[in-house]
Amino acid sequence: VERGSRRVTFRRCLPLAEAQFALTLLKGVPLHVNLYTVDGLYIERVTPAATESMVKDGVVAEAVGDLLAFLREDPVKLLCIGEPADLEVFRTAFLTERARRGLPGPPPHLVRSEETYLEVLPTGVNKGAALAELARQLAIPLEAVAAFGDNLNDVEMLQVAGLGVAVENAHPDLKARADLVAGTNNEGGMAAVIREVILADAGGRRA
């Protein structure tokens, strides 16, 4: 989505059948679910988890009751919010039951974006794919791109960028895959890398 015009330049949605399958399994797990569609954000009912999520992300969700009954077209994604152990129960059940039923094609992309967040995304959709598409549209080579991240949903983005940077307080698995580890995001780590690495390198090339 373009920041100024809000024009959508690229979109891939979660197949309806996959979303319905996930919502069916989620009925047996104590997790809050945010349903994102092309039209908006929907929840079953207002809960403390829902309120916290809306305040944190600066969004407003519409309570519509049973999400499985409400959903009629391919959504953008599902966001599951809850205790890490419950998120893992759902993730394992989803992949295991999907394989047992022999559902066609590769599974959706399930990724932890925070300790208490698990996102159900379309197959092949991640920040790395989004960055590659944006770079293509802007005609910028990926080797000239720097990306910064702090959690597991940033892994693919750091891998495709020419310079992948994790902040010091990032998830350990992300730090292990980064080209560089900067200071924390509370200590100006990103600014320091831009100043001391990126701009310094650009200045050296001009000289």
How do the helices and strands line up, and which of them pair or pack?
Blueprint: H1 16-26, E1 32-36, E2 41-43, H2 48-57, E3 62-63, H3 67-70, E4 77-81, H4 84-101, E5 109-114, E6 117-121, H5 127-138, E7 146-149, H6 155-160, E8 163-167, H7 172-177, E9 180-182, H8 189-206
Parallel strand pairs: 2-3, 7-8, 8-9
Antiparallel strand pairs: 1-2, 1-4, 4-6, 5-6
Helix pairs in contact: 1-4
Round the mean pLDDT to the nearest integer and report it: 91
| Total number of domains | 2
- Main pleated-sheet profile: 6 strands, mixed
- Counting DSSP E segments of at least 2 residues, the number of strands comes to 9
| Chain oligomer state | single chain
Structural class: alpha/beta
User: What spatial form do the alpha-carbon principal axes imply?
Assistant: globular
Give the distance, in angstroms, between the N- and C-terminal Cα atoms: 37 Å
Please provide the ordered H/E string of secondary-structure elements.
Answer: HEEHEHEHEEHEHEHEH
Quick take:
The protein is α/β, with parallel strands linked by helices and 207 residues long.
Architecture overview:
With 207 residues, the protein is α/β, with parallel strands linked by helices. It folds into 2 domains: 16-121, Hypothetical Protein, Haloacid Dehalogenase-like Hydrolase, Chain: A, domain 2 (2-Layer Sandwich), CATH 3.30.1240; 127-206, Rossmann fold (3-Layer(aba) Sandwich), CATH 3.40.50. 41% of the residues lie in helices and 18% in strands. The chain is built from 8 helices and 9 strands. It has helices spanning 16-26, 48-57, 67-70, 84-101, 127-138, 155-160, 172-177, 189-206; strands at 32-36, 41-43, 62-63, 77-81, 109-114, 117-121, 146-149, 163-167, 180-182. Strand 8, helix 7 (172-177) and strand 9 (180-182) form a beta-alpha-beta unit. The protein is globular and about 55 Å long.
